[in-house]
Design a protein that fits this description.
By secondary structure, this protein is mainly alpha-helical. It has a domain at 316-425. 70% of the residues lie in helices and 0% in strands. The chain has helices at residues 13-16, 19-22, 25-30, 34-57, 66-78, 92-104, 109-120, 137-142, 146-149, 151-169, 171-202, 208-217, 219-247, 253-260, 262-281, 283-293, 297-310, 312-350, 357-364, 383-425, 462-472. α13 runs antiparallel to α15 and α13 packs antiparallel against α16. The longest helix has 43 residues, at 383-425.
Length: 473
């Protein structure tokens, strides 16, 4: 008896390789743009209220205000540093080239700035971190340093460093600012995670209103999930270690008691370290767990911890792959934003035939480059200043959407990683997502896809059977 032959007509690589699902992150994070709008709203609330708070607290971290530090985060993400004043006797071209050489040697941004000002004076400010200014897009694209290709990672590192410094130097400002950030990102970020979850699982693109309605119902869980383990750790530390500190006030016997029970302190320190590790490792999966399952904060924490510790290396691999993919994707987004700005600028400049029109355009709009997409023109006044401000507002909205791609991508990638880990640990299908019974997502009542080939045919009626017999006769 001959063996049956199987013909392979196609391979669904996203089923064979789980990484194929992560490749959908770029498209889901970018389209529809509702997730970009939500992330932009969260950024505006977080940064805007932080700038207002800074007017009260007058912080001076890294000898800069909060607004200037946020500008540095933007510059780190885009690989840009804007000029304010050149050093005396040195041109912008020479300054940018020498600063770029320091960057190629692996010197950190803070040390680069310190070395640069020690060499050229405290009034030396830099034009940009990158190659020499050129109208050739290939030179700008492939001549840049690590800041151009790994700008998102530099921005994340800068945010972590700023967070530690603000908590150390301005704790009350840090507490209020991070409370505002938590409330804002729980609302808008939770809605973005819900949009990503439904779109990834079902292919349906729900509206912002539906996502915000879901977030309003689960808002307490979204806010409580990042805080639950932190509060538990704080309570345990307060209850256990505060009496130990008070015992040390007892003369002679205090230090003996602390020494005798020091082993218990080590055991509790081990437990608290595990809880802190649980909190940090499951932080990225908590909002996706609520968006996918529709459960409370404790269920989200338990699922996040369980999935990460059941497949730790898989989670690390997925996260690292997503970060590299994020850097490459952001290069494309930046290049597209550059074209959106460059094409109209070049077209308007080409039609400036009259004398003084090209100079007037320069006073209204600074020529965009890959390393400096926008800079406010100097020396404008009157109606020209109003026109420059209007142009600046429009360009800043575009740049805000460009930067919003970063948190949108991170939220989407963590949501997809949650689906993949859930399939491995709980053996649940990837297309299973929570939908309220009273709510229909664009006509999708059931999320389980029904294979039409598995639907049983309806039995033939007597009339039809009789008709067939008559025709046979």
């Amino acid at each position: 008896m001959a063996d049956h032959e199987t013909v392979v007509r196609g391979i669904q690589w996203d089923r064979v390789l789980s990484v194929g699902h992560l490749m959908r992150t770029f498209r889901i994070a970018l389209w529809p743009p509702s997730k970009l709008v939500l992330c932009l709203a969260a950024l505006v609330v977080t940064v805007g209220l932080g700038i207002l708070l800074d007017q009260v607290f007058k912080t001076n971290v890294y000898e800069q205000s909060f607004r200037e530090n946020m500008v540095d985060v933007y510059r780190a993400a885009t690989g840009t540093t804007i000029t304010e004043r050149p050093a005396k006797g040195r041109s912008d071209q020479m300054l940018s080239t020498e600063y770029y050489k320091l960057g190629l040697m692996g010197v950190s941004t803070e040390n680069m700035t310190r070395q640069f000002k020690e060499r050229y004076g405290q009034n030396a400010y830099l034009f940009h971190v990158g190659p020499e200014e050129s109208t050739n897009i290939l030179n700008e694209l492939f001549g840049g340093g690590r800041g151009f290709w790994f700008g998102p990672l530099e921005a994340m590192r800068h945010v972590c460093r700023l967070t530690c410094r603000y908590w150390a130097e301005a704790p009350w400002f840090a507490v209020i600012n991070w409370a505002v950030a938590l409330l804002a990102w729980a609302f808008f970020g939770g809605a973005a995670a819900r949009l990503s979850a439904v779109q990834f699982a079902t292919g349906v693109q729900p509206s912002i209103r539906e996502a915000l309605a879901f977030t309003c119902k689960r808002y307490v869980s979204l806010v409580a999930s990042p805080l639950a383990l932190v509060i538990v750790i704080a309570i345990i530390a307060l209850v256990v270690f505060l009496p130990a500190a008070l015992v040390m006030w007892i003369p002679w016997a205090g230090e003996l008691l602390v020494g005798l029970f020091f082993v218990l302190a080590l055991i509790l320190g081990f437990i608290l370290s595990l809880l802190a590790l649980f909190a940090v490792s499951s932080l990225g999966l908590q909002a996706p767990a609520i968006a996918v399952e529709g459960r409370d904060a404790f269920d989200a924490i338990s699922r996040g911890v369980n999935y990460v510790f059941a497949r730790p290396w898989r989670y690390i691999f997925y996260t690292l792959f997503s970060l590299v993919y994020l850097c490459l994707s952001f290069v494309l987004v930046r290049a597209f934003a550059y074209l959106v700005l460059r094409i109209p600028y070049t077209a308007i400049k080409a039609f400036c035939f009259a004398d003084g029109q090209e100079a007037k355009l320069g006073r209204l709009w600074t020529e965009p480059t890959l390393y400096r997409l926008f800079a406010m023109p100097e020396g404008t006044g009157g109606t020209e200043y109003v026109g420059a401000v209007l142009i600046g507002v429009a360009v800043c909205v575009l740049l805000g959407l460009m930067v919003s791609f970063l948190p949108s991508f991170v939220i989407t990638s963590q949501t997809i990683i949650y689906f993949l880990l859930r399939r491995m640990v709980d053996e649940k299908d990837i297309d299973e997502v929570y939908v309220p019974e009273e709510h229909d997502v664009n006509g999708l009542d059931r999320l389980e896809r029904i294979d039409e080939t598995q639907v049983e045919p309806e039995p033939a009626t007597e009339a039809s059977a009789g008709g067939e017999d008559d025709q046979t006769t």
